[in-house]
Amino acid sequence: MTVNSEGPGTSLSSVAESTMALARAEVRLALAEAKTLLFRVGRGVGLLWLGLLLTQVFVLLAALSPIFFSIWPWSAVVASLAISLVTMLVTLGLAVRELRKVKS
To answer: Predicted confidence band at 26 (pLDDT cuts at 50, 70, 90)?
Structure first.
């Protein structure tokens, strides 16, 4: 054990400064973690919102498909429904994955 030749006042001041530096670092860490959490929540909610909009597009296309089948070839109608469905499912899957990251 080393003995500080400057006295107990200097040692106490050094400990207080180190404690304050540690507290500032903890506050910065907490702010960074909160920022990351809010970013993930925002991204998850944004993807969920987009997924719900794409769900509306798919439902509208599905509802209008009997009309489209009488106008266009069946392959074009099925392709548009498939593209809409896949886009919707991928977006909703990404939203669920992002919101599950927030939970853990």
So the answer is: very high
Q: 54 is in which domain, residue-wise?
A: 36-103
User: Is 76 among the domain residues?
Assistant: yes
What single string gives the DSSP state of each residue in the chain?
----TT-HHHHHHHHHHHHHHHHHHHHHHHHHHHHHHHHHHHHHHHHHHHHHHHHHHHHHHHHHHHHHHHHS-HHHHHHHHHHHHHHHHHHHHHHHHHHHHHH-
**Cβ-proximal residues to 65 (8 Å cutoff; 6+ apart), any chain:** 77, 81
Overall number of domains in the chain: 1
On whether residue 18 sits in a domain, the answer given is: no
The pair phi, psi for residue 7, each rounded to 5°, is: 110, 165
Overall average pLDDT of the 9-17 stretch:
84
